[in-house]
Design a protein that fits this description.
With 190 residues, the protein is an alpha+beta fold. 23% of the residues lie in helices and 29% in strands.
Length: 190
């Protein structure tokens, strides 16, 4: 089932996710719905916060990058209760976008290598699994969502000033992407 995407400014995007219990009866359906939502919205990753859930959960299918980055071919993974243990290597700049922040892309610096602990959809534990390059970047972006961090938090202050109006348009519902979104509630004036 296609789920609405949580728009910039919604408080759920700023909440750190809670751990998921192994016996969660709704998890497999949620994962399936997240992949469907990601594909229908033309994304390569989706975190629970982006569908208005505060869980330590994200999904990735990096295969759209396969032509430029062959290591992404058939890279489809589920990350449950993930924790980045360490980051290393040279920082590199790459243009990022986000389904929760439609129409805005900015260059972000991130480390080139990460080590991460996580459970997959079969509850197999992966300890200090190493990812590099574009895969590390995509994982870092989605992991940030589970920590309440957006890619716009990682750009220079002057860039934030330049995109402030666009961000306000997204949070107020003036920006209408091709997919359904959940916008922040407007404050009622008394």
């Amino acid at each position: 089932m296609m789920l609405p995407i949580t728009a910039y400014g919604h408080p759920t995007l700023r909440k750190k996710g809670s751990e998921i219990e192994k016996n969660n009866q709704e998890l497999q359906q949620l994962i399936s719905d997240m992949f469907e939502t990601m594909y229908e919205s033309h994304g390569v990753g989706l975190a629970a916060q982006q569908i208005n859930k505060t869980l330590l959960l994200f999904v990735i299918d990096a295969s759209p990058f396969a032509e430029e980055f062959p290591e992404t071919k058939d890279f489809k993974k589920v990350f449950i209760n993930a924790e980045i243990i360490r980051q290393e290597g040279k920082e590199w700049e790459f243009e990022e976008g986000c389904l929760s922040i439609p129409g805005i892309n900015e260059f972000v610096n991130r480390k080139s290598i990460i080590y991460i602990n996580y459970y997959d959809e079969d509850w197999v534990f992966h300890e200090e699994e190493k990812f590099e390059g574009i895969l590390a970047r995509i994982i870092q972006h989605e992991y940030d969502h589970t920590q309440g961090i957006l890619f716009t938090d990682r750009i220079p202050a002057f860039k934030k000033v330049l995109i402030k109006r666009k961000l306000n348009d997204i949070s107020s519902g003036k920006t209408k992407p091709a997919y359904k979104m959940i916008y922040p509630r407007k404050k009622v004036k008394k």
